[in-house]
Amino acid sequence: MCIRDRLRSVPGIKELSSTARLSYARIVAEFEVGYDIDTALNDIKQAVEEVKFKLPREAEDPQIREYSFAMFPVMNLSLVGSASLRQKVFIVEQNCPYLDSDYADQKAYHLLGYRNEKLICYLRTFAPGIKCKESSIGRIITSIEARKEGLGKKITEEAILFLTNHFPGNNIVISAQHRLLKFYQNLGFVERGDVYLEDDIDHIEMCLECPKR
Fold first, then answer.
1. Is residue 48 part of a domain?
2. CA-CA 20 to 30 A from 96: which of 51, 63, 88, 192?
């Protein structure tokens, strides 16, 4: 992969990982802790510009996205591992058989939290106009062994910060399980509409109104 080969020479990169399949590829560059994020972003953009002419003619321009989730010192933003945790929590633990792979992961920003190389919490976020007209958060999960540590709140707060910084002026919407109403209210979300049934579980749409800029 020509872009990955070029990125190997970018200063400050701690680790490169990639996934690819028909018509889609993703490269994740993890930088050393403390490395200047603006310098890193500029170096990545320059590297991509230098080699993108080698891509197939029908390929779209590569999209470069910045992740800066400060709560977790070690982050892996590839999709490896997240699906199994989602299946474990949403399908097995909640006894809720449904199709978790909704083909939206490719359009999402993913936040994964690890402890000792084990995935313990996860969520995904979407830019406005993908899941709904506003920004949105979904699939918020913590593993059983990491419950009651406040990780669900921490990663949700990080997602809110990420979305308000990258998509300012847009409200943030979640489809919340109704039993977690108080949890989301404490984060500033307000109910919008009536309770509805989704995968045999009561849900309610909630919205966090963000200040316009």
1. yes
2. 192
